[in-house]
Each structure stands twice: as structure tokens, then as C-alpha cells.
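Worked example

This section walks through a single chain of length 219. The input is the sequence exactly as stored; nothing has been trimmed or padded.
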Amino acid sequence: MGIKKKREFDPHTFLATIGEGRKIVSFQTKQTVFTQGDAADAVFYVQTGKVKLTVVSNHGKEATIGILSEKDFFGEGCLIGQPLRMAAATAMTDCDLLRIGKKAMMQALHREHALSDMFVAYLLTRNIRYEEDLVDQLFNSSEKRLARVLLLLAHFGKEGKQETLIPKMSQETLAEMIGTTRSRVSFFMNRFRKLGFIDYHAGDELQVHSSLLNIVLHD
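Given that input, the structure is written out below as C-alpha cells.
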């Protein structure tokens, strides 16, 4: 009698294909994925493109709290009982997202250890990023904060990438992300360009060079 072969589960295949409780949804640039206050009933996984997360205060002030790209999750608050979306999600570029229903995601996390390990590692990494953001806000100049945000958006240091194009975004958005004014962002962006750290000559995209790291490391 032959030994029954154990079924192997690949989390990357799970996050790349449709199946029970999950489907691929496409969004065009500037299209809303969900709005603040919507019912929180699914987790999203970015397959391609970039997504912006924003929050609006009771007084109508909007702030950008995150820019997500390929292999990022968002909307996971529903897994811990969050009934409503605490932020809005908008496509910054044309996007393909995997929408995973809350029930399907919970079942998969309990059943598949490889997926749960991957998901926990992602959440821990993001938590470290939030702590670094807080330290950045408390101790670094707005110039260093801007340089760090641009490097993060360009995925500097990941998969051997040294120079990367990122979607063009408004200076108001960058100012919201680093906690300064649009005029200061404009001043620093012009300075970075003159020093050869960034390049605007890539259509609607911004090219970030690894040399921008000099701003972050300089005391």
C-alpha cells in the first residue's frame, strides 16, 4: 500500500490565483478601492500597481498614511473585528488586487501554516516600519524624512534594485507623509534634482537614484 503524499501549500500561488472566497479585481488610476467608513469585510493583496491609504479627520483634513505596492496587504483590520474601514484606499496607478473575503482569509490562516507565517512576518515588518516612521518624525529633519520616503517608495535595497521609477505623486501628498509644507517639499525636490539624486525626465514617473541615501546618512 502506497504512502499518501502530503498536499503542499504554496502561499505565493494562493495569493496569485482566484479561488473560494478570493477574486482578482482591477482598478484604474485614481479609482477608489474603498472609502473610510465602508464595511470591513475583506483583505486585499497588491499583485501589481500602487495603492494610497488616506484618512480624513472630523474637520475634513486629509492625511496620507501609506503607499502600498506589490506584495503588500491592506484592509486586514477586519480580521480582528474591525467593522468599518478606518482609512480610504485609492489606486495610484492601474492595479490588480486580490480580494480575499474575511472568512476565506481566516480559514486559510488557520489551515495553512506557510501562509500564516508569511502574513505574520509581513505584519511584523510593517510594524517595525511604523516605529521607524515615528522615530523619523521625532528626530530627523524634513529633508531627511523626504529622502527616506522617496527611497522607501523606490524599494531601495530590495532585490538588488539600485535605481527605481516611482509613480509621480503630488508634492501635497509627499508633504502629508513627512509632516511639512508643500513649499518645503518643492525646495528639497529641486535641490535633490540639482544634486543628481532624482530625475524628472521619465515621463510621469520619478527616478530615484541610490545616491539619495547620502542625504539620509549625512549628519
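What to look for: The helical segments are 11-14, 102-111, 113-139, 142-153, 171-178, 182-194, 213-217.
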